[in-house]
Predict the 3D structure of the following.
Amino acid sequence: MILRTGQRVVFIGDSITDCGRRDVAAPYGDGYVSLVRALVDARHPEAELQWVNRGVSGDTVRRLAARWADDAIGQHPDWLSVMVGINDIWRRYDGWPDDAVGIDEYERTLRDLLRQAVDATGCRLILGDPFFIEPDRGDPQRADTDRYAAVVAALAAEFDAVHVPTQAAFDRVLAVSPAKRWADDRVHPHLPGHAVLADAFLTALGVTAAP
């Protein structure tokens, strides 16, 4: 495992990260963040890691930028996990086009936020792709999501970050099961869908099953 004893791991993003962490499921939410925390702690109790969830439902990179100083840099992470972009794309398709974020602005804003965090805290980065739980790559929203995910993969290489290929994780299960099994709206996963995400994060972090 690449996480080290006593380190502080901060997750930030949209509703997929939030998952009720500000109310009914405080403080970690009831999604992939909670699963990652629970499994890492169970498998590496000696590590005594600190976990922080700063996901907020509805966030795009624009909204993330408005709270970055407090919710990312101000949390003093050793590791900062960022997964954002679904709303940047989805708003173009769900009736809120003015809130959609074009790919050039997305890349420019995300790069700037990551640079701010690394320069201010010296943290390492974990970057999760935006995803769309749709197997048809010709679907317009899926095609857009693949383009934005390619931006994240490139930024991961640029920043020497841990890259979490979440779309690939869903593509694996979609090859043998319908999208409805994982999410009603192809965006917000059921608990098994969050387990797909958690598995992808654990693999990227080098967290293996207990012997």
Observations:
- The mean pLDDT is 96.
- The radius of gyration is 16 Å.
- DSSP finds eight helices and five strands in the chain.
- The first strand starts at residue 8 and ends at 13.
